[in-house]
Design a protein that fits this description.
Layout: H1 7-19, E1 24-31, E2 34-43, E3 60-66, H2 76-91, E4 97-100, H3 107-115, E5 119-126, E6 129-137
């Protein structure tokens, strides 16, 4: 997310999320009382991402940032991705798919999405990265 550096960089990213039009919802993940992840749940079909794949009405996207090395590589990401995708599908009946676009080079992230029930759909060229388009379909949810 290019958020390394001074806190002002992160603040500049978060401000529009908090003051936005409701198309994106910022969320903080807490584990045992400690903040450990940041999420953005957004209308992917209304996002610039929709220009890069065959978006469907009410596609919902997720962005995830897991902080702290001790929370990485233990399956926490997979568990969180599955839980958040389930929450989206449980609470947004018009949403048929949850989508994400991790950097294709970030193999641990792509692996976590696959383990959480997302499928690899395509490689997409985005302005800031070559991404793996990952999709979790409502239709196949019962098989997970």
């Amino acid at each position: 997310w290019e958020l390394a550096g001074p806190e002002s960089v992160t603040a500049d990213h978060l401000r529009p999320q908090l003051e936005g039009d409701g198309r994106s919802i910022p969320c903080l993940g807490v584990l045992d009382g400690t903040p450990m992840s940041y999420w953005e749940i957004y209308r992917a079909d209304l996002d610039p991402l929709a220009r890069h794949y065959p978006a469907r009405p009410h596609d919902t996207g997720v962005h995830l940032l897991i902080g702290g090395v001790n929370n990485r590589g233990r399956g926490v990401g997979t568990t969180l991705l599955r839980a958040v995708a389930d929450l989206v599908l449980d609470n947004l009946p018009k949403c048929g798919r949850v989508v994400a676009e991790p950097d294709l080079r970030n193999t641990p992230s792509v692996s976590a999405f696959l383990s959480a029930g997302f499928r690899f759909s395509a490689e997409v060229d985005l302005p800031d990265k070559r991404a793996a388009l990952m999709i979790r379909d409502r239709t196949y949810r019962a098989q997970l």
